[in-house]
C-alpha cells in the first residue's frame, strides 16, 4: 500500500475516533453529570480557598476598586456547582482593604460574587502567604526544599502563628454563614488547619479537603517542624482528595509513620472517624478555549507578525517547580545544535509572577530567567529575529487562546507539579487545527494519562530539545492522532466532572462515616451514679494501652504505684470483682499482680485464667456485724484469709501442633527486620515492629500476614495485625477476650445459666481490636463498654488515655467509704 493510501486510511480512522468520542462525550454529559444532592433547599455549598474567586484592582484614580471575575479551573468547577445549588465562597479578596472600606467591599463581593471575604492585615498576609505558604510549604510540598529561602527557620514560630491566625479567620468567616446540613469544601495547602478547626466547632459538619498541589513523601514532609499539627488539621475532614494516586500513597505513609494511624488504601481511621481518600484530577472547561471571532482576530494578527515562523509556547507561573530556566536552556540547546531552526522558530515564554516576588528566592529566580532570555536572544537574535519573546505578565484571555491555537509546540517543563492546566488549555484551543504537539514533563500531574504527548525529563536538556525537534518535524496525520488522544482526556476530565465527582464523593464519605458508631465521651458523673446505686459490680480491664501506656518491651510496661494502690482500694469491698484481661503471659501478670488475690487475671487473651479470690466476708457463715466489720478491713491479717486461686488453662483442648513451623518463620522475619521483637507465649506469638523503621516494619508485617494467611488457612489459627500498636499476633481462633469474658461470667455466676445480668454494674475497658470481642459479650443496660482513645469501635463510650482511666477508677474508690459491708445473703 502506498504512503498516500496509508495516510488516507489513518485520516479516516482519526475521523471515526473523533466522531465516536463526540457521541460518548454527549452521552456522558447528559447522563453522568446530574445535580449535586443537598439535604434540603435551604442548604448550601461553602467553598473555602485563599485563591480568590474575583480579582480586585485599584482604579486609575486609586479611590475605588475594579472587580474582575477569576478564570481559574477551580472557579469554573464551582460555577457548575451553582447550577441548582446555593454556593458561597469564603476567600481572601486578593488585596489589602482599609478597615474603613471593608463594609462596602464586603457588600459588593457578597451581592455580585457570592463571596464572603476574609480580610487579612498586611503584616499577617506577608507572614502567612509570602513567608510561610510560598517559602516554606510550597517548595517542600513540591519536594524542592533546597529552593526554600535560606532563612527558612528564621522567626519560624512567628510565621506559623500567622498561618494559624489566618486559618482561624477563615473559621470565623465560615461560622458566620454556616448552617447545619451545609457542605464545606476546603481547598489546598494554605488552609490545612481549617478542617480541624471546623470539626471542633461543628462536630457533625460535612467537610472535604482538596489538595491541588502534590503531597510529598514522608522524607520531605517530616522536615516540617509542625508536621503533626498540619496533619491533625487535614484529618478534620470527612474526605481528602488528591490529583494522583502517588499523593494518596504518600499521605497514607505519612499518617502511618507520624501518627501511627490504621489505614486502608482508601481510608484512614482517626479519632473514631473514618476519613475517605479520593483521586480526582482537576480539569478545565474546554468550551472557554474555543475559537471565537475575537480569538480569530488575534490569530490573524499573530500569524502576520510571525510570517511563517514556527511557534513554541510555554505558559507558566513564576515558580521553581515550573522548570522555566530548564525550558530556556533547552531552547538555547535547540538553536545551538539544530541551526536550521535559527530565524525560523520563536519561543513565547509567558510568565506570571503570581505575587511572589516579595521573596528573595523568587526575585533571584526572576533575575535568572531575565539572564537566560538575554543570553539566548544575544547569541542567536538579530535585528529582525528575536528567538525568545518574554512576556512577564498575564495576557488577555482571547490573546492567550490565540497563542495556543497558533502554536506548533507547547512545552511543560515542570520539575514537580500536581496538575498542569495550561497543557489542557493548549489542547482545548487546538481542537480545530490539531497541528500542535505537546512536549510534557514526566514529573507533572497526569503524565501517565497524556499518552498523546512527548514525555520528557526536563532536567535532560538534550532530550527536551530533541523532542521539540521531533514535534516540529512530525507529519500532520500523526499530530492529529496524538491530539485526538489528548483531547479525549481533556474533554472527559473537565472541571465540571471534577465538581460533580468531588461533591458526590463528599456526600458518600459523610454517609459512610455516619454508619459507624460515633462514640460519646464517658460521662464520669453518670457512671459514678450507677456505681453508687449498684450492689454487685464487675470490672473487666485490658492492661496495655488501657491501664498503662503500651510498650513493646515487657520490662517497660510495669504498673505504677498509683495503679496498684487503686486496684487494691477497688477490691477492698466485697461488692466489687476486678479482672485484668491481657495478652501478656501469665508469669508476667503473676509477677505484677500476684500479691493482689482479689484481682482476677486472664493471660494470653484468656488462654490462662486465675480467678479472683472470694472476699472473706462472702465466705463467712457468721452474719453478725462484728464478723462483718472484722473481715472488711484490708490489713495484712485479712489478706491472709483470702483463698488464693490457682492458674488454670481455659482452652486445654486447643490444637498447638502448628507452633514449631510458625515460630521458625517468625524468627526468620525477626532476623531480617532490625528493631523487631518476638514474644513467645504458651498458645500464641506476638511479633512487635514498633521499634523498627516504620515503613520497612509495616511492609514486613504485611508480608508476614499475607504469608500466614495462606499457610494457616486450613487451620483454626488467626493472624491479627495492629498498626497502631505495631504488632502481628498469631493465635488459635478460639482464644480471644470474648470467650475469656464468657468464662469469667460463668465462673462468677451464681446460676447455671450465666449472663451479664447477674451483675448490676459492669465496666469493660479496652483500647484495641482484640478488645472488641469483649465488648460484644458485655451487653445490657447495666453495662458500660468504653474504648481508650477515640476510634471506630463497638464500645459505647471512650476515654482519652490510661491517665483518664486511672482517674475514673480512682473516683470509684472514693465512693467506697460507706460501701465496705458484706453482700446481703
So how many helices? Answer: 28
Task: Supply Rg.
Answer: 34 Å
Q: Which term fits the overall shape? A: elongated
- CATH superfamily heading of the largest domain: Glycogen Phosphorylase B
Report the top-level CATH class of the largest domain. Answer: Alpha Beta
Order of strands across the widest beta sheet?
5-4-1-6-7-8-11-10-9
CATH fold description of the largest domain:
Rossmann fold
How would you classify the helix and strand content by structural class? alpha/beta
Helix content: 40-55%
Q: What summary fits the major beta sheet?
A: 9 strands, mixed
Strand element count = 30
GO molecular function, one term: alpha,alpha-trehalose-phosphate synthase (UDP-forming) activity
Family: In the N-terminal section; belongs to the glycosyltransferase 20 family.
Protein name: Trehalose-phosphatase, putative
GO biological process, one term: trehalose biosynthetic process
Describe the protein:
This protein is α/β, with parallel strands linked by helices. The protein has 4 domains: 44-279, Glycogen Phosphorylase B (Rossmann fold, 3-Layer(aba) Sandwich); 306-492, 3-Layer(aba) Sandwich (Rossmann fold), CATH 3.40.50.2000; 520-652 and 735-813, Rossmann fold (3-Layer(aba) Sandwich); 659-732, Trehalose-6-phosphate phosphatase related protein, domain 2 (Alpha-Beta Plaits, 2-Layer Sandwich), CATH 3.30.70. The chain is 43% helix and 17% strand. It is built from 28 helices and 30 strands. A 9-stranded mixed beta sheet has the order 5-4-1-6-7-8-11-10-9, with helices on both faces. It has a 9-stranded mixed beta sheet with strand order 18-30-29-28-19-20-21-22-23, with helices on both faces. Strand 12 (310-317), helix 11 and strand 13 form a beta-alpha-beta unit. The radius of gyration is 34 Å and the shape is elongated. The N and C termini lie far apart (106 Å). 44% of the residues are buried. Mean pLDDT is 85; it is low at 22-35 and 619-640. In the N-terminal section; belongs to the glycosyltransferase 20 family. In the C-terminal section; belongs to the trehalose phosphatase family. This is Trehalose-phosphatase, putative. GO terms for molecular function: alpha,alpha-trehalose-phosphate synthase (UDP-forming) activity; trehalose-phosphatase activity. It comes from Phytophthora infestans (strain T30-4). Pfam families: Glyco_transf_20, Trehalose_PPase.
